[in-house]
Specification:
The protein starts with a strand and ends with a helix. The chain has 2 domains: 4-226, 3-Layer(aba) Sandwich (Rossmann fold), CATH 3.40.50; 231-363, Beta Barrel (OB fold (Dihydrolipoamide Acetyltransferase, E2P)). The protein is elongated and about 75 Å long. It has helices at 45-53, 95-99, 101-105, 110-123, 139-151, 169-186, 197-203, 221-226, 231-236, 352-360, and strands at residues 4-14, 20-30, 34-38, 60-65, 68-69, 80-83, 157-161, 189-194, 206-211, 214-219, 241-249, 252-255, 258-261, 271-277, 283-286, 296-304, 309-315, 318-324, 333-337, 344-347. It has a 6-stranded mixed β-sheet, sandwiched between helices. A 5-stranded antiparallel β-sheet has the order 13-12-11-14-20. A hairpin with a 2-residue loop joins strand 11 and strand 12. It is 25% helix and 34% strand. It binds adenosine-5'-triphosphate and magnesium ion. Adenosine-5'-triphosphate binds at residues 15, 17, 19, 21, 39, 41-47, 85, 195. Residues 45-46, 85, 161 line the site of magnesium ion.
Length: 364
């Protein structure tokens, strides 16, 4: 990347007990970019942030900030601030003193700092909370103080480790928008950690999906959602149907005992692959429809989900998840249609068996 503010190359972290927490991670992060690290618990998200922030020394690899190696620098010498997963406020200081901690440490003008503190508290929705004790705040309020405390330092890069985890859904949504606005207006580069896929997709310019100390896929939210490259990513991001299939030849794939036209090429002939079809892309058609050589199924369950109906449709040994604004009653026989561009073909990977089994278990 040309204008990368941070360039991470082949970063490995092996802990004393031999555990490989990061197995060679590489990622370039652009100025003013909002990048999210997304992945299950234990995949190495916090470890990667700790390396960037300077709290963990990698076993090998490089971290370049504006082209310079920062691994030897202690955290306070990096233009990087961190909002930790456990937000580490000072319990003996009030809200304003917590937020003012950085500027006070640098000996900045008290009155200017007080004004900045009020501005930051307003930004995170805590105007007027200056004198409150930390212990008198809710978890969500404490988390917002932690964000204000980091923002006041105007770092070039802000690392946020699940900063919204303690908030209820409504406040979380508000803070998502708020953080996004702050990031756009301040020009700060955000590296954000979450294991909430919806949060990752709505907030980020790019998402890095991690698993077991590796970045499996890096791309825009649209790329990651529409074109997952492995069963793990497809399964982790949103509801899906993941099925075993065979690539018959270019642009022709077989699954659910039928052949489908698709848009994928280059997998070879008769290659075993994984298929993902999103529930909203699986169309239920009446049996009278003149579609030929398509799978058929029976609606097994119907749930109203607010925006759409969720149906489970059995086709042979497989149970498929379907989202539609049109309800079909349980017991209805249907034909199943998928447009070629809505079939995503993926190479088999080491997590295919687990993911396929989980999806097959839906039929039980
Ligand atoms: N000091 C340590 N010694 C040995 N193993 C460690 C150490 N610190 C972390 N680990 C292990 O490294 C792995 C990655 O941990 P990390 O905290 O980065 O995960 P995470 O993706 O942030 O997970 P979570 O979503 O639960 O916060 C975990 O399996 C963890 O147990
Ligand atoms: Mg973590």
């Amino acid at each position: 990347m040309e204008n990368a503010i941070l360039s991470i190359k082949n970063l490995r972290v092996v802990f004393e007990d031999g555990f490989v927490a990061l197995g060679g991670v590489s990622i370039d992060i652009g100025k003013n970019e909002f990048v999210t690290l997304l992945g299950p618990s234990g995949c190495g998200k916090t470890t990667l942030l700790r390396c960037i922030g300077g709290f963990e020394r990698p076993s090998s690899g490089e971290i370049l900030y504006k082209g310079k190696d920062i691994i030897p620098l202690p955290p306070y010498k990096r233009a990087i601030n961190t909002v930790f997963q456990r937000y580490a406020l000072f319990p003996h200081l009030n809200v304003a003193q917590n937020v003012a901690f950085g500027p006070d440490l640098r000996g900045e003008d008290k009155q200017k700092t007080a004004r900045e503190v009020s501005r930051m508290l307003e930004m995170v929705g805590l105007a007027g909370y200056e004198k409150r004790k930390i212990s008198s705040l809710s978890g969500g309020q404490q988390q917002r103080v932690a964000i204000a405390r980091a923002l006041i330092n105007k770092p070039d890069v802000l690392l946020l480790d699940e900063p919204l985890a303690a908030l209820d859904l409504k406040l979380r949504r508000e803070m998502q928008l708020e953080l996004k606005r702050i990031q756009r207006e301040s020009g700060i580069t955000f590296i954000f950690v979450t294991h909430d896929q919806e949060e990752a997709l709505t907030m980020s310019d790019r998402v890095a999906v991690m698993r077991s100390g590796e970045i499996l896929q890096l791309g825009t939210p649209e790329d990651i959602y529409n074109e997952p490259q492995s069963a793990f990513v497809a399964d982790f991001i949103g509801d899906s149907n993941i099925l075993p299939g065979t690539m018959v030849c270019d642009r022709k794939v077989r699954f659910l005992n039928c052949e489908f036209a698709c848009v994928d090429e280059g997998f070879g002939e008769q290659a075993e692959v994984d298929i993902v079809v999103r529930p909203e892309d699986l169309k239920l058609r009446p049996m009278e429809d003149k579609l030929e050589n398509v799978p058929q199924g029976v609606v097994e369950s119907l749930l109203f989900k607010g925006v759409h109906y969720e149906m489970k449709v059995r086709s042979g040994e497989t149970v498929l998840l379907v989202h539609s604004t049109h309800a079909r009653q349980v017991g209805t026989r249907v034909k199943l249609f998928v447009a070629p561009e809505d079939i995503q073909v993926m190479h088999k990977s080491d997590c295919s068996p687990d993911v396929l089994k989980k999806h097959a278990d839906r039929a039980k």
